[in-house]
Design the sequence.
């Protein structure tokens, strides 16, 4: 086999491994609320989420993939060595935060690693496309804020709507509705997150001349990325489920429904606009929103503060790891 083709196949496999780890790492985002409210057991929750992760491509466009593939750094500087460094930097940071049970962002780990690898290659920030990076960075603040606001608003609307209902009856209704909201959120998760790996593979194919347009996504890339993410979700991320589902605040089925719905709406808006946001940031903001609707003290702000700190650290930490892997990958062109 041609060595160049062999390296391309190797890097596609590494990209799919990142996608799998993304599903594994971020599975908690899809299932934390429905597990913590005991509507579904963890086993059935991951099966439910994985299915909707996989079919998400049927409901959303590919704007996020195009942003990652050609809108963060100049696609003309893409090389095997750069992609190797970016993927390994993001994977390393994901594994560290997964081991520490910190719900950091796989999305921003990948973006930070891409920028770090490009800096290592060109010796500065000249290859960074600031418009694409700017809207991605803005998502760090905007997505949890919108998730927070929507979840809080939904709690208020639902509380007034069911004001005269018995708690037992309302609990039964929202246990059923949580199946819908969890599916909706998993669609949003799969639709936004799997596209980041699609963008990386598309950039690789363009660099190898296999496609002639930056950001073009062949269908086989779409289906394999969705499958890898769905499989990752299927294996779950139980350590992070505990942090997301119970350590931030305690949830009832009604609150779980509001958090998932608010987070899902946020993800669908971002995906429609082609913005690669973090599902971790989004659902955390929504969970904090429903907790704050009861009383401010219902939120464990210390845990939330630690999560926010991890968000801030992720971009530079993954970037530095990518720089290290760029120099370790001297054997690649």
Sequence:
């Amino acid at each position: 086999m041609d060595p160049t083709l062999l390296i391309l196949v190797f890097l596609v496999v590494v990209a799919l491994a990142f996608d799998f780890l993304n599903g594994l790492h971020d599975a908690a985002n899809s299932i934390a609320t429905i597990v913590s409210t005991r509507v579904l057991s963890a086993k059935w929750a991951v099966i439910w989420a994985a299915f909707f992760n996989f079919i998400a491509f049927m409901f959303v466009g590919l704007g996020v993939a195009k942003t990652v593939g050609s809108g963060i750094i100049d696609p003309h500087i893409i090389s095997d060595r750069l992609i190797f460094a970016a993927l390994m930097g993001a994977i390393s940071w994901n594994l560290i935060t997964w081991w520490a049970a910190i719900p950091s962002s796989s999305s921003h780990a990948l973006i930070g690693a891409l920028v770090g690898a490009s800096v290592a290659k060109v010796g500065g920030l000249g290859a960074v496309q600031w418009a694409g990076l700017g809207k991605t960075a803005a998502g760090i603040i905007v997505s949890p804020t919108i998730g927070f606001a929507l979840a809080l608003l939904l709690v208020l609307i639902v509380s007034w709507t069911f004001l005269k209902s018995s708690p037992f009856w309302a609990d039964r209704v929202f246990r059923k509705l949580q199946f819908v909201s969890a599916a909706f959120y998993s669609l949003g998760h799969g639709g936004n997150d799997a596209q980041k790996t699609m963008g990386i593979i598309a950039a690789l194919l363009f660099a190898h001349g296999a496609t002639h347009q930056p950001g073009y996504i062949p269908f086989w890339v779409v289906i394999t990325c969705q499958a890898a993410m769905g499989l990752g979700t299927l294996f779950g991320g139980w350590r992070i489920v505990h942090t997301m589902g119970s350590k931030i605040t305690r949830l009832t089925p009604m609150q779980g429904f509001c958090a998932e719905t608010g987070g899902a709406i946020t993800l669908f808006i971002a995906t429609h606009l082609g913005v690669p946001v973090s599902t971790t940031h989004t659902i955390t903001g929504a969970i904090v929103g429903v907790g704050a609707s009861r009383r401010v003290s219902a939120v464990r702000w210390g845990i939330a503060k630690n999560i926010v700190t991890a968000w801030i650290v992720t971009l530079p930490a993954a970037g530095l790891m990518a720089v290290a892997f760029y120099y370790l990958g001297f054997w690649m062109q």
Remarks:
- Residues 153 and 258 are 9 Å apart (CA to CA).
